[in-house]
Amino acid sequence: MSTTTAGRPGKVVASDRAKAENRLGLKLVAPAVVVMLVVTAYPMIQALYLSLYRYRLTTPDDKEFVGLSNYLTILSDSLFWQDTVNTVIIMIVTVAIELVIGFAFAMVMHRIVFARGAIRTSILIPYGIITVVSAFAWQFTFSINNGWVNSWFAWLPWIGPDTNWFGEHWPAMFAIMVSEIWKTTPFMALLLLAGLSQVSEDMIEAAKVDGATWWQRLWKVILPNMRAAIMVAVLFRALDAFRIFDNIFVMTRGAQDTESSSFLTYRQVIEQFQLGLGSALSVLLFLTVLLLAWLIVKLFRVDLAQARGEG
Amino acid sequence: MDGVRRGLAAAAALITASGLLAACSANADSGKPELVWYINPDSGGQAAVAKKCSTDDYTITTQVLPQDANQQRIQLARRLAAGDSSIDIMSIDPPYTAEFANAGYLADIPEDLQGKLKDQSFKGATDAATWDGKLVVAPFWSNTQVLWYRKSFVEKAGIDMTKPVTWDQIIDAASKNDGKVAVQANKYEGYVVWINSLIAGAGGEIATDTDKGVDLTLGLDSEAGEKAAGVIEKLAHSKAAPPDLSVSQEGQAGATFGSAQGAFLTNWTYIWTNYDSTQPEVKKDIGYTRYPQTVAGEDSRPPYGGIGIGVSSHSAHVDEAMKAVECLTSPESQGINAEMTGNMPASSAGYDYPALAKIYPEDLLQLFQDSLDAAAPRTVTPYWSDISGGIQSTWHPPASVNSSTPKESQSFIDEVLHGKRLL
Amino acid sequence: MNRTRNLIGTWVGFLLILVWCLLPVVWIISLSFKGVGETAAGSPQFLPKDPTLQNYKDILNDGDFLDALRNSFGIALIATFLSVIFATLAAYAIARLEFRGKRLVLSLALAIAMFPVVSLVGPLFDLWRTFHLFNTWPGLIIPYMTFTLPLAIWTLSAFFREIPWEMEQAAQVDGATSWQAFRKVIVPLAAPGVFTAAILTFFFAWNEFVLAISLTSTTKSRTVPAQMSYFVGPDPFNPPYGQLATASVVVTVPIIIIVLLFQRKIVAGLTSGAVKG
Prior knowledge:
The structure holds three protein chains of three kinds.
Chain A: H1 2-6, H2 15-50, E1 53-54, E2 64-65, H3 69-75, H4 78-111, H5 116-128, H6 131-142, H7 149-152, H8 169-196, H9 201-209, H10 214-225, H11 227-242, H12 246-251, H13 261-271, H14 275-299, H15 304-308
Antiparallel strand pairs in A: 1-2
Chain B: H1 2-26, E1 34-39, H2 45-53, E2 59-64, H3 69-81, E3 89-92, H4 97-102, H5 111-120, H6 123-128, E4 130-131, E5 134-135, E6 138-150, H7 151-157, H8 167-176, E7 180-182, H9 189-201, E8 207-208, E9 217-218, H10 223-236, H11 250-258, E10 262-268, H12 271-274, H13 280-284, E11 286-289, E12 304-311, H14 318-328, H15 331-341, H16 354-359, H17 362-374, H18 384-395, H19 405-417
Parallel strand pairs in B: 1-2, 1-3, 7-10
Antiparallel strand pairs in B: 3-12, 4-5, 6-10, 6-11, 6-12, 8-9
Helix pairs in contact in B: 2-15, 9-10, 18-19
Chain C: H1 2-32, H2 36-41, H3 54-60, H4 63-96, H5 102-113, H6 121-130, H7 137-162, H8 166-173, H9 178-207, H10 210-214, H11 224-227, H12 241-275
């Protein structure tokens, strides 16, 4: 233990101490870095390599170097773009709705003085529940034979006992998004709650005294002061929503054109054994996620270092 | 630093220990070879015959594959491609037989056993198990579909079911009398089973020249293809279409058939015992006849399903496994399996198993056998999963099918096969 | 007037949240009491017509499911334990030490947090076969550590940053040995953070599906989310819905227990990791 305490940063450190600290720091992060790289680095390199080949697992003799043509095939294919559009729609719609509902939840949780434990417990259940289970629950909810949506909402003009939610594109997308929103809103609400607790009550009171309406206080005082929290929540959720897989796998298996980019990749690599094309899709998927992260960070000027507590 | 090192050592020890623990449980053999049979999940039939066929020389143990046929194929193919020797025997769904055989995953079946199996099995079963002129899996159980109908409905509608019926007739009859025609039309393999039978029933074939690999000849864009599309289009736009048509698999179709509007159902053999415990009143109302005709006057070609048993070419005990397969697929084993699971034998000798006559009426057993002899297996080609996937993409949902669907699907599948399109 | 309106608003919000969060859970519990006959014939009503315990009996007599449950617990607990140890070391270094490559480690963690799991399943399968890790506990434990480390490091370094480390020195000055000072002062302060990271990691490992279905092949290592596609009922072509629902309820029970016991810590952990400035 003595060496551990020796690594404590002083204000002015001798170069020996700095070196020792450097070494200790590297030793401490090494195990985590190794575990993270073992599982991701080699597969990524292999995916890059395989993406240049026409290669199918069940016909290995036909393996052939094709350069970038897999990428060309994918980028000129309507299915790829359709699935990308689906994924983007799911991402934007779910994150937007979660932001609104999550904020409302956060407001209630912030205000509430009674039953805090009960509300926190119940909000954490969707967060902790297995996605596959959530997908099953919602699939049954919308099921034409075994679901309650059709009978409970029969008073709506476009819903009847024979409404087949998974029979058409938009209703199926709707069901998928409901499951996704249900499961992940609590996460959003908790991040926003943290942001909300940082808005100073004094400022809100001052605005109140100045005669600002509730709406004005919300837009002029509360929201601007929790911008960092909102941005971090959006970043996390957007990247997560972009990788949507389990819900679609369970609910529609991609029927009615509800496929996402992750699902397309899964189908090529795992179901079709198309290692070449599939690897190219994997690479594209990863690049898209990186691009997305970069866009969100740049556009919304999210300061991750600050958000994480890094000075 | 000691603390860190100790932590790491403990971590490493834990990982190793959990690995060893897992390894230990697998290696409890006593010298007698253990043949591992990967089976599709069932209600115990395969486990029972595995026990029966274990001898003093080897023990057959079973490992269950996922419920979904496509997931079964994925699990097996990935491991076989990696040269896994822990699979000895496997239950294979017909559409993937050729793919496995072509990739060299299946050990050759000895000539004499091939001959014996060909002699005992139904023609449909032999056709589905043959690739490149050789029998590559041993037909174990064979499934086929018949047309199930509700006697009360047929009586009300006044239809004569003693003569062969066509799709047109049953769709019209159901539409007029507030009944439903239940089929499998979700976006999955079962929908292609239906399409295949419709095309074969019109004298067509989804693909020929399968020895040319990806350059095989597609037969979707043909008169038979258009006839098939016509039936689907007609049903999807008629009042006889169940509301869940585009998501219905065997179970949903069975539920529609059991409901108040149930009229006609095309489904596998298990339907006969499906309502025994849950809806006995429906069971009493079930009638059955040959699968409907696509074209009036032309014999229907019922679907073929089932399981063939193959031996892995990476198995360390190929000879023992072949002996085991011979026992597993004997007519008696087929009968035991059929009694327990409702998955009917692949041979007419299997149908002689006494217990079956107690469960099924004699004319139904005869209908199953006649259907199996006339059945049209899906095209045997290593590229079936591409063809099937292409059909699913272009023919689903059923309501989108029209006269141009066959042509579009043919050119789409052609591009997929040549790696020009994503599936 | 304003106060009562606020109170009513909060109450309504409270009830809405409860319904939103719990309705699907109640629904799946209700499904688990519906018999095979009821779901097969179609039963759109919310509550079971004829509640039965048969599904629970079936599930608890299903050896494969119990194996899967054991695997899930074992794999999730070991992955959590190791991941938290590694993350604690790394987070301590990041929060307390100056060393080269710190930013690199953080970027790596961030990149991995965003990694689409689907894109590495194929190569990982081949790699695991080569190292005989396919269908073993470590074969799942290792990737689960990989994907939980970023969040754990993230949460823990935020926690450690808040700890007033000077107190440790102060205790030493008061005559405590460095071990005593560490144990009495730092451990109690760091424990909640470690604990939170552990719960989040456990949730992830307990939930994971894609890797579980791709990297296992027998009940030796298959976990519950993957085992759910192996259920078979009297109808060979459809999974038995009642059993699926029952299995869902069974695997949700540990989650509910954890949430009931530790909700305060989970909330604190989730919020502190992300927004503290």
